Amino acid sequence: MNKKPEVSVVVPAYNVEEYIGQCLKSILKQTFENIEILCIDDGSRDRTVDIIREYMAKDGRIRLLEQEHQYAGAARNAGIDASRGAYLLFWDADDFFEETAVEEMYREIRKEDSDICICNARQYDTRTGTYKMPKYYLNKKYLPSQIPFSAETVPEYIFNITTNVAWNKMYKKEFVEREGLRFETVQRANDQFFVMLSLAKAKKIAATDEMLINYRINNSQSLTGGFSISPLSSFETLMRIQEALKELKVWRKVEQSFVNKALNGMLYSLKIQTRIHGFITLYNKMKTEGFAQLGITGRTPDYFYSEREYIRYKELMESRDGESYLLEQMRKGVMQNMQDDFENSTAYKIIRKMYRAVKKVRKKEWGEKRASTDAKIKSEGKDISAALFGLRSMRRI
User: Fold this and answer.
1) What residues are paired with 394 via a beta bridge?
2) Across all residues in the chain, what is the average pLDDT?
3) How many other C-beta atoms can be found within 10 angstroms of the C-beta atom of residue 197?
4) Three-state secondary structure of 101-142
5) What GO molecular function annotations does the UniProt record carry, in alphabetical order (predicted)?
6) In sequence order, which residues have a C-beta less than 8 Å from that of residue 168 and are 6 or more positions away?
7) Labelling 30: which of 221, 259, 347, 388 has CA 20 to 30 A away?
């Protein structure tokens, strides 16, 4: 390929033989053709590289770089270094894209010579084959009427307009290099730092409400799946972002936006834990000091943008311990990721038996005096709390 590409599409890939073909097909079908596709294999041990090579033989716009397994952040950085385009896209190898995705974002980012362009996206559920349209990839509740925007024009919402993912954003390469933006080479949440710092530093941010990305969910092969392996990763990244914002002298200006983003992010991190040990580790950290360190503790309710998230935060802080809070959240249908792990445990079976006993007491004594019934339920409840408390000594049940 001799012609210099205008847009470089960086695709980190790790053990995605099931999806990489659909991903590359959707990129090769783009209506905007002046692109290069940089596939960065992150040490795959399946047929990912073979499939990429098959597509390379058909289209010279595809280039393959191979590295030892260093996670998606390192792969994206390698893509930045090898890119030749004036604009950068960071697309995941298990997703697929609308044919006009590059064209639409390229047009919007160039319209006002913006540093970033954000697009909307939908989720594709691998298990059910259905689509979902969440509001948070481009949250119009916080999106200003005046576009392009920046941290100067909407400091109170700059981090709440979109999510901390790189794949629904196009970046001007000159901006990325000038500001020294790099992805973190950690195992999880490796694009969080890059995205939030870029939003804070950009002079102009464009946006399009077109749903251009099909983001695959319920995919066990994703580079970012399984957050219980490193449950504190998101918290630690947010702490580094907070420090960086203070060094940039913009902290006071964007503080409310950051605090709300941090609360949202940490509640989400708790929700997506898949193992009890990971959940308890994160719960204990946040309750004892994490929320305070992120600036969340001590705020009045009206400081927060989501009443529901504030209520969940208060419930967590007022809960006795992580195990009882987890059980209560699962009963509400919030923490479903750990359902199998928890229900297969001996402790769960004991707790379930106790709750059945309480239910039986309620039913049997429904017609008796309320005070007597409440006393028995309260007594049984103490036993349940004691059983839950015993879970704390278990790494994984």
Assistant:
1) none
2) 87
3) 19
4) HHHHHHHHHHHCCCCEEEEEEEEEECCCCCEECCCHHHCCCC
5) hexosyltransferase activity
6) 118, 119, 120, 121, 137, 138, 162, 212, 213
7) 221
State how far the Cα of 34 lies from the Cα of 3, in Å rounded to an integer. 8
Q: Is the peptide bond before 148 cis (omega within 30 degrees of 0)?
A: yes
In total, the chain counts a number of residues equal to 397
Residue 15 backbone class (left: φ over 0; alpha: ψ -120 to 50; beta: rest): left
Of 206, 214, 174, 215, the C-alpha closest to 104 is 206
Does residue 124 contact residue 217 with C-beta atoms inside 8 Å? yes
**CA separation for the pair 225, 103 (Å, rounded):** 30
Q: Which of 236, 234, 241, 270 has the alpha carbon at shortest distance from 255?
A: 241
User: What are the residues whose beta carbons fall under 8 Å from the beta carbon of 118, sequence distance 6 or more?
Assistant: 138, 161, 162, 168, 169, 205, 206, 207, 208
- C-alpha count within 13 angstroms, C-beta hemisphere, residue 306: 21
Task: Return the residue matching tokens 């390698």.
Answer: 78
Enumerate residues 6+ apart whose C-beta is below 8 A from 191.
72, 73, 76, 90, 164, 165, 166, 183, 184
pLDDT higher than threshold 60 for residue 367 = no
Among 57-66, 182-191, 213-222, 366-375, the range scoring the smallest mean pLDDT is 366-375
Which structure tokens are listed for 308? 């529901």
> Degrees (nearest 5) of the Cα angle 34, 38, 42?
165
- Tokens at 158, concatenated: 């700059």
Average pLDDT over residues 84-94: 98
Joined together, the tokens standing for residue 370 give 């309320």
- The DSSP letter of residue 148 is S
List, as one string, the DSSP characters of 266-304: HHHHHHT--SHHHHHHHHHHIIIIIHHHTT-TT--GGG-
